[in-house]
Structure formats: C-alpha cells, structure tokens
Amino acid sequence: MAATVEIIVVGNEILQGDVLDTNSHWLCAQLTALGAVVRQVTQVRDDCPAIAEALRLALRRGNRLIILTGGLGPTADDLTLEAVAQALGVSLQEHTQALAWVAEMYRRLAQEGRVPSAEMTPQRIKMARLPAGCEPLFNAVGAAPGVLCQLVGQAVVCLPGVPAELKNIFQEALLPWLAEWLGQGAFVEWTAVAACNDESVLAPLLKRAAEAHPEVYIKSRARAFGESYGRFTITLSARGETPARAEALVRSAWEDLSASLDRAGLNAWLEVPAGGP
Amino acid sequence: MAATVEIIVVGNEILQGDVLDTNSHWLCAQLTALGAVVRQVTQVRDDCPAIAEALRLALRRGNRLIILTGGLGPTADDLTLEAVAQALGVSLQEHTQALAWVAEMYRRLAQEGRVPSAEMTPQRIKMARLPAGCEPLFNAVGAAPGVLCQLVGQAVVCLPGVPAELKNIFQEALLPWLAEWLGQGAFVEWTAVAACNDESVLAPLLKRAAEAHPEVYIKSRARAFGESYGRFTITLSARGETPARAEALVRSAWEDLSASLDRAGLNAWLEVPAGGP
C-alpha cells in the first residue's frame, strides 16, 4: 500500500495568474518516482486561516506526508509557519540551529556586499521562528530554512517557494529521510501510441484491459481532434515493492491490451518504456 | 465585495507529474481580470469520491463560482460529471441539446474521415449525460460539451481538460454569462522594481505602506539571492467597482511607498503599469 502525499502551495501571485506554479509539478514527479501517491495539490492565498484549514483537512485525510511550498520569507505576508503552528496547535519559537543558519547566510551575503548589513532584524529572525517541536532543513541557496514537523505516523514539511531553494532543500536535506519515511516502493509507467485518434473507439478496449489488470492504471491521453490526427497516447502504470514487480504488472497488461488493439485492427507500439522521471 | 471563485482540476496525469496544469493558471488570470478573487485551486485524481468531496467543500466555503476542468471525455476514468451529480445530489440524464451537439461533431469528423464512424456509441452518449438541471456549453473544437449548473447564489461550471477546448468554451460560450454572474468589478496591478535585493530591508517599509493602504495588496516577490542582484520586484494591486477606482487606490499607495523607499535611500521605479492581462 503506497504512502499518500498532499501538497499545499501558498501565494496570491499563483491564484491571480501572475506566476505559474511549477513547484508542485516537480514535486509530484519526484514523489511519484519514490513510489508515493500524490492525492491532492491545493493552492491557497497568503491567508493564515486558509493555509491552516487546508493543512487541517490534509491531515484529517490521513496522508503520510503533507508538503507546503511558499510563504517562508521575511515579509509580513509570509504566513506559512504561523498557519502550520495554528493547525498543529503549537506556538512559534526561535530555533537555535535555524537562527544560526539564517545569521550565517546574512553574514556571508554582507561580506559579499550583496546585502547592506548582517544585522539580525526582526524580519530575518522571523525566518528562524518555527512551530514548536519542528526541526529546520538546511537551505544552501537562500535564507529561509525548510521545516520538518514529525507527528504520529504523519509528517509536515515546509519548503520555500523559490524553485532553486525548494529543489536544493528537497534533494540535499530531505531526500534521505523522505525515502525511508515513504517506505519501499517503485512506480513504473509505459507510454504506448495507438494508430487511432478517436478515444471513444479505444475506450471499450481500455476498459476491458483495466478490468483484467486492476493493479495497472491504464489511461488514454485526451487531445484536441486533429492535434494528433491518427495517433493516440496510452499510458500504463503500476506500483510495486520493487521496480521489477511493477514492471511485470505493466508488461502483462500491455501484452493483453496490444493483442486486443491488434484484433480491432489498430496498430499500437510502445513509445517510452520508463520507470518515472 | 468581489465574487470568490474556486477551481478544481481533475487528472492523475497532473498529480503524477506527467503533465503540467496550465489550465488553472490561465483561468486564474482571466477571472482576476474580471474582478473576481480566486480563493483556491484544488488538483485531484480521477477518483469520483475525491472530486465530489472537493466540490462539496468548495460549495460549503460559499464561493460564487466553482469551475472544474478535465474528466469530461468518453473513457471510463472521465468521472467529473458523475462526481458533480453526486455532490449536487442529482442523477445523470441524457440532455437532448448536448446529445445533438455530440452527434453533430462525430458526423462532421466521420465525413472528414477523422473518425471511423459517426455511430453514437455508449462512450459518445456518455459525454451528453449531464447532472439533472444543468445546461450544456457548446464546444466548437471538441466533442465533450462544457456544463453549467446554476444553483441558488452559486454556480458550478465543468470544462474539458484539453486547453484548446477549455479556452474555446470559456471565451465563446461562458464569458457573456460569466461577466454578469461575477458582477461589476475591476482589478489593477502595478509592478515596481526597487534597487535592493534584500527582502528583509524592504519588509518594514512595505508593511507600513500596507497598513496605511488596507485596500491595496502590496507584495514583494521573493527570488534566489544573486538571481536578481540589486533588483527586487514589488507588486501593488487593488480591486474597485471601476478600473479608475482601482487605479486610484494603487496610485496613492505607490506614491507613499516610493517616498518612503526614497527616504531609505533605495531607488525604485514602476515597471509595468497594467490592469491585469
């Protein structure tokens, strides 16, 4: 049984259509490749009650992991940690290690003349005030540390909204713990192409293959008519304890499906046999 | 008081990181320009209970409009209309007008030799089975009609996940009704650049300006250190009954803010004076 994950994306700029959220897309690919199932992505505004409520609901849905992105910075509308503290029913406390990291980052930036001074202003200290009981995650490319809150059987992770910082913390500070926390698991997806552009003709064949192989998720990718005249994309994906297990499931589903496409006079071939990104 | 909107995006391919959702980004920009506030975007899997629950919660939050994207096609995992019917407590019924549109589209595609036959298979008829009481929205570039469900003071709209189809229905079939439904309103956003790359220095000045101009949303855009050395982006946005009203609010906030940046020895200038896309 794969671990389930939800992602909460914070920022008015996203809900105003100013900025396209690519962080959750990147995280979805990473987490899926680790064998987890991302159940939901929720984008909310810079609004403390809205962030806290989204987190409460995600925790209530019993997810193993909830990742929040954005709202960790020094400005007054960076509210993620305050909202997490509210949702978890704890207070914000200055964290010694986090404070040391933030101070060190500004010392370096001041030395390099990239900020006017290394002084620890209230705004900079704010980034080191974490929900009680949480630990900071080292940010090698920015000031705001990530945050990890381990609860009973569930965990909450906060990452900055700046993509370079989010990716650095995820890969350097989080990944070793994450692989263990999400447990063993592998995800394999094959993409096939069928020489047919009418989904309603494929539908009954896909349905039969899906019923015969309940562990394999079979999906045809909708496209605008004409956009892909004569071609249709079908993905077959499965999870297993090992990549070999997952691949065996996908392979046998593909063998059945391609045979039935063949009988229906439709040419089909595998395009990208790949196990996630 | 601006009308609030939520968007629900349906599709495993998004939560697996296979496909980047650009539909909600496009819709957020359109709706914001119409003077509405997009409160939340929720991405869920091809899972009927999950879609229905997301819609129930969005309705309970009292939004004026909820738009669902994706899951309107002919395949067995296109579940959006079934989920909407469940959430609204109604049944799915063949809609005469929708059925005529779907049949006409396949007649045309068959004539052009782009589908093998015009026969109305169960999969094609499925796209014309709407939640009782809803009306179809004409889709000029694809088979699946959009769907409009008007409730008391709230409305639910379903659009296909194929971007070309979603945009066509939104602009051709939905926009006239939508502008009226969301009511009068305008949104203006100005972008300024400050010659400073340390957000924690700007933070107190932005906070004071925001407190003096509660109707204006002032936000500094976080960037990785160095990425934009010496420059920082500040956005000022406001809503008003008319563009002129909204612009007057933004202008007076900018005049205060630029004066205080000036006093702090920071150069700042307007970059894009624009009223939404």
In short:
With 277 residues, the first copy, chain A, is of the alpha/beta class. In chain A, 41% of the residues lie in helices and 25% in strands.
Give, in order, the helices and strands of chain A: EHHEHEHEHHEEEEHEHEEHE
Question: What would you give as the CATH superfamily of the largest domain in chain A?
Answer: MoaB/Mog-like domain
> Per the principal axes of the C-alpha atoms, what is the gross shape of chain A?
elongated
Q: Which blocks of ≥5 consecutive residues of chain A have pLDDT under 50?
A: none
Mean pLDDT of chain A: 91
Instruction: Indicate the CATH topology of the largest domain in chain A.
Output: Molybdenum Cofactor Biosythetic Enzyme, Chain A
How would you name the oligomeric state of the polypeptide chains in this document? homodimer
The number of E-state strands of chain A comes to 12
* Widest beta sheet: strand line-up of chain A: 2-1-3-8-7-6
Q: Round the Cα radius of gyration of chain A to an integer and report it.
A: 23 Å
Largest pleated sheet of chain A? 6 strands, mixed
Q: How far is the first residue's CA from the last residue's CA of chain A?
A: 21 Å
The total of helices of chain A stands at 9
Please give the domain count of chain A: 2
Portion in strands of chain A = 15-25%
Class by alpha and beta content of chain A: alpha/beta
Helix content of chain A: 40-55%
